[in-house]
What does this fold into?
Amino acid sequence: MKKGKSVKLKLFTPIKSSYGTVDSKNLKSLYINIQSWVTPKYETDNWNRVVGILSREIKHSVFNSINSEFFREQSIVDLDLRTSGISTGKKSFFNLEVNLYVKSQLDFKSKDVKESVKNIVKTIFKENISNNKYFSFSLTKKPDLNKVDWPIYLSKKP
It folds into this structure.
């Protein structure tokens, strides 16, 4: 019997976000997943440090936005952004997973749980993604056609 459930959240354009659980009948923990493609805004010597700082900032945002009525303060925040392939003009995959542990038995489908999770995602987006000084975020790996860095000639050559 399938116990796991997940719900997509369509909150912001440059990210895919969802939350779920592996056991909705005996709910002990929830996960939040945020995915995007990132492009560096400038070149730096140490991407490990930049990604480490971003990860730490996200952990602070999660800690400050957890609804302590439903969730324990302890959480696991796992940012997966491979530093070896980051370079300007090239998109890299960004995957963030946050694990939250419930204080008492909750209904996975309840509005309170959904609103608490939405609040965490909104906080992460506002504090760490929307005005990020290191990266610009986009939903797909395809080039952003709205951001043109080179001249495009639409007329035919004579």
